[in-house]
Amino acid sequence: MAISARLEIQALNQYLTKVLGEAMVKATSDSFNRLEVEVLPEQFQNAAGLIHHDTSLQASFTTMLALEDPIEPACFKIHLLFLLKKSKAWLTLSTRIKKERPVLPAISPLLPAAQWFEREIHDLFGIQWAGISLEPLVLHRDWPRGGHYPLRKDFPINQEIPIAEVSHQFHQPHAEGMHQVAVGPIHAAIIEPGHMRFCVTGEQVHHFDAQLFYTHKGIEKMAEGKEINQALTLAEHVCGLCAFSHSTAFCQAIEALGDIKAPERAVYIRTICLELERLNSHMADLSAICASGGYGLGSMQASRLREQLMQLTQHMTGHRFFRGLNAIGGLNQEIPEDHFAYMRQTLEAFQKAFKDWHAQVMGCDSFLDRIESSGYLSLDQALNLGLVGPPARGSGIERDVRVDFPYAAYTAFQPKVSLHALGDVFARTSVRIDEVYESLALILNLIQYLPKGSIYQKTELIFSPYQPAFSVVESAKGDLVHWVMLDPDNRVYRWHVRSASYMNWRGMVTATMGNNIVPDGPLVNKSFNLCYACVDR
Amino acid sequence: MIKTIHYWLKTGRSILPRESDDIKHFQFDQEQFQEMNKATRKALSRSLLIRHLDTGSCNAEEAELVALSGPAYDISRYGIEFTASPRHADVLTVTGPVTRHLKIAMERTYTAMPSPKIVIAIGDGACYGTPYERTYACLGPVDQFLPVSIYIPGDPPSPFEILSGLLMCQDILMGKTV
Questions:
Q1: Chain B environment of A226 (Cβ under 8 Å)
Q2: Domain range for residue A480?
Q3: Which ipTM was obtained for this model?
Q4: Gap between the Cα atoms of B178 and B168, Å rounded
Q5: Which chain A residue lies closest to B54 (C-alpha atoms)?
Q6: Residue A14 maps to which CATH number?
Q7: B87–chain A nearest CA distance, Å
Q8: Which residue of B has its CA nearest to A213?
Q9: Nearest-CA distance from A262 to chain B in Å?
């Protein structure tokens, strides 16, 4: 596999050299199917557009981040990460710009999915994007503009910035008879904070505007200068519902950097836990969709089933959210063999109960009437916004990292990707229901072939300093990225987290605006299963 | 049917760790409660209305609170309900360390509540600010900003732990010593 992959990378390298021409400064590749291409800053926009629109590459935008270049301290470095589906490789497009004049041509006109990333980089690093208007995103309007860029190294971590008396400028109602409905930041239900404004005539939504990042804690800044294990704890606390996906992504990134191989058994258990987490998250979401669709019985049944899974999780791992289980090089604790027998038994009973629930929900006409055709998002819109996970698969995009770029035990056990093309709440619900069956089958299969042996590989932690490392993991909400760079003392130099909800938020805003009524807002929101904590960090 | 009632009776109280040592680490501000007269306390104690406030948590505490109102734990049988507005609430449950962007919203929510008001901090983030640390955007645990009466630590605390904290709150209002 390694030889063919290397040939593939070489061919890719030659192809890009031909396409990008003189703009290319240098290209480096490693043994993990990763190619990094550096271009001149003025050519950055063109190169990003070329790669994104080249159909022969089948590139899908994954993340974009900035950092202070450790090799040339007078520069910022921008990394733009693509997944090349055809050649099964990761392509990083990077560029350097001088700190004195940090201006780059904006790439969002060619790559609309990058819009939030540009705004975030502007807020946290002060890099200007020429050609677009930059609204603040991560730091609200009450953050004084100019001079205070928290992710720069010269910004002290706990510097207090006073709150300025400026509030967010929302889209104003512009026609007669139109008015605004304000929701949040503190919501009526038990959910996280975010402020939304609906512009409506009667019940019809015309415009929908959201202000997020209320729970922004600066976790990426917290991790800087910390030991790897401390950063792992923070990675687990980015989000509660996908805690294990986050910690797995972080561990895999560090393991790839240090060439550490986790033992087979640990890898299998990780995969089982990832799938169990998917089940937990999907059941919570299916319960919430039923509740928002006014189907109380379905919601309560799903919530009961979910609690069974949560108790199973506690039984297996000792924590209801898988915390403290993952470690660099394997797992922190062994799960005894009889626990897996119990798990199999519980999941088989769960499968039977879930089938009943499924039949019940799909037989409820009033609920189906509610979820069919609401929150429509077309394939083009979904592609433009770079959606990931069940919302992408509900609009007909075949994107699943478990299959596109298998990691952990997915190399041997590949799930069947569920695709629905309708693009409404019904399609997204159906994707989740299919995935519940698929995850159950996968877990039962993994338990059957679970290898014996150790769960932790003690190795000397030797890492090459200032080497970028990343890992992409498919969480229940879509793929999430952890990108890490360590300094010579093995401490975190820069850590970047791009969660699945970060990509899907704009999809939800677009879907709510298209021919919906206000009560559909929560329903559409739940069908995207968005999390605020991992967006805001 | 009889089986269901039997199950319900069994799960009702007996499995809660009410007499155990688990709840001793909850702290409690006596002064605030002594100001209330006995009738107010009694009226409050069996119909606690909770307004939930997320000041920057990691979402796990919210998941556990949702589970509390679900069929497995069903807190409404104790007379505890989550309410949509702070104006109807007796108790404010707070999760997560206070973030810079939510400080104003938090203060306004607290001010909007009618007196007497009880603040319960749920989870390590709200109680101690851990595992996060102070940054430009994360300001620290809740008791630096609001008078917290009861602490329910945990990462996140399980629904049972939260429930026993809430029931303890009822007991305190009834005048029982903990």
A1: none
A2: 219-453+462-536
A3: 0.88
A4: 8
A5: A192
A6: 3.30.460.80
A7: 12
A8: B101
A9: 26
Give me the residue spans of the domains in chain B. Answer: 27-174
Please give the Cα distance from B119 to A178 (Å, whole number). Answer: 39
Residue in the block written with tokens 């990094």: A36
Number of domain units in chain A: 2
CA count, 13 A, side-chain hemisphere, B122: 33
Residue type, A379: L
| pLDDT (tens place) for every residue of chain B, 178 residues total | 555 454 444 333 323 333 333 333 344 455 555 666 677 777 777 788 899 999 989 889 999 999 998 888 888 888 898 998 888 888 899 999 999 989 888 988 888 888 778 889 999 989 888 889 899 889 889 988 888 888 888 888 999 999 988 888 888 777 666 5
A77 in any annotated domain: yes
A303/B64 CB distance under 8 A: no
- Structural domain B27-174, CATH architecture: 3-Layer(aba) Sandwich (3.40)
Are A493 and A373 within one domain? yes
Mutant choice from A141, A154, A186 vs B, greatest count of B C-beta within 10 A? A186
User: Which among A130, A146, A175 is the end of a domain?
Assistant: A130
Q: Which two tokens stand for residue A208?
A: 């929908």
Residue B111 near chain A (CB below 8 Å): no
φ, ψ of residue A25 to 5 degrees: the values are: -85, -55
Domain boundary among A97, A130, A163: A130
**Are A305 and A405 found together in one domain?**
yes
Task: State which residue of chain A sits closest to B53, comparing Cα positions.
Answer: A186
Nearest to A339 by CA among A321, A323, A318: A318
